[in-house]
Amino acid sequence: MACSGCSTKDGQPKGCKNNGTCGTDSCNKLSVFDWLSNMSLPQGVAPFNFVEVRFKNGRKHFYKNTENLSLSMGDVVAAEASPGHDIGMVSLAGELVRVQMKKKKVDPESDEILKIYRKATEKDIEVWETARNRENAVKKRAREIAIRLNLSMKISDVEFQGDASKATFYYTADDRVDFRQLIKEFAREFNTRIEMRQIGLRQEASRLGGIGSCGRELCCSTWLTDFRSVSTSAARYQQLSLNPQKLAGQCGKLKCCLNYELDTYLEALKSFPKTDIKLYTKKGTAVCQKIDIFKGLLWYAYEGEWMNWHKITAEQANKIINSNKKKEDVASLEEFESELQQVEEKPDFNNVVGQDSLTRFDKPKGGRKRSKGKNRKKHRRGKPSKNA
What we know:
The chain is of the alpha+beta class and 388 residues long. Helices cover 28% and strands 19% of the residues. It contains eleven helices and 14 strands.
């Protein structure tokens, strides 16, 4: 999605160069589609006087519209801050704000919810844009000061308040950092109020953005708002190789997408026996070597014959385990494997779409028919034969 200013022209992107502050609110991070915008409220129902305001890099807060301003998505507003005011963009208004507040467990009657002062004036927007244009230079200078003080921290981003009265420095660090001297030098260098805020590696990746290994934009910077813990057991359940280079994302932590299909895998594994359970037969004791969750198959090998694997289904394995519990004799795994081979049939694929084969021109056409046709034409023309 993109606004009219970001659309392409003659195959080249024009680029509105608004840096995430497009007025149409369609090419920003974590943008929301208001599917209730065209619906009117029933008679006698007052509109919900709370709005959701988005700031830099997807930071969102709920504000109370005490002045009953006519606000819609994309409006630039001046919101209450401590101290002064901040400039943000309305990302959601109306009844959907009530749903979001209930989802995030925010009490509308809470005194901690700040209010909106007014719609941003030209002077407010001018001060805001001037402050935002300073952020890259301030971040570079802040990193130089942190390196000079030998602090084990990384300043990942800088965000100025809308009225340029405060600058928030986001940093990541493994251990606790004593930045008292750092704040003094920052205040002397940048001549503004300083706030240091530590974030995790996942939050840093969501603020910076990027392209994942799937070829799409990072989930944390587009739609993912909550970060759940990801463990290596999620990769084990999905039978993925425990390769840190493949399982780690741009933040250096395990990919959040490992949790997306984990519940489905856990549900499918309920029908499988545990891999540490051995199968006892007359031929010997079998140990599980591999499972295929999609096909519902398991491979077992006898102790001492580790090279010969026998394929059976999960139902057959559970049947053998129940027989072992009842102390019933089981001949061998080969019997169950032969039953499975009889059931399996080679799939017959038919061309139901009607597409032509790519190798249709590889087969040579018969040349004899052509020669016969030529001879017939010659006889029709009345050419005399050799015997004549």
